[in-house]
Write a structure and sequence with these properties.
3 helices, 0% strand, F1FO ATP Synthase, 102 residues, mainly alpha
Length: 102
């Protein structure tokens, strides 16, 4: 899993200058490089947050279901943690949106 994440990160770092050059060539007066970096940063914020949130929900959900199968009274204590893990995706989206707006 770590190897895949490293490969994706390296790929994004290698491809980012190509996007920056393309954006600069298409709109040099609008600060094309800054726009390209802004879009890449927003995409990384949302993408990494959603991937991390999915992994967290998967692990927490499996553990919560395992605990509830042995003791049904635990469901009220375990389910809010799944909601907290889903909140990671929301925060990533908000950060990406703020990057694009500001």
């Amino acid at each position: 899993m770590k190897r895949k994440a490293i490969l994706v990160s390296v790929f994004l770092l290698l491809i980012a200058p190509a996007f920056a050059q393309e954006a600069e060539a298409s709109a040099p007066e609008a600060g094309g490089t800054a726009q390209a970096v802004k879009y890449i940063a927003a995409a990384l914020a949302v993408g990494v947050a959603c991937i991390a949130g999915g992994i967290a929900v998967g692990q927490i959900g499996a553990a919560a279901l395992g605990a509830m199968s042995e003791n049904p009274e635990v469901s009220g204590k375990a389910l809010p943690f799944i909601g907290l893990a889903e909140g990671i995706c929301l925060w990533g989206f908000l950060v990406g949106l703020l990057i694009l707006i500001l």
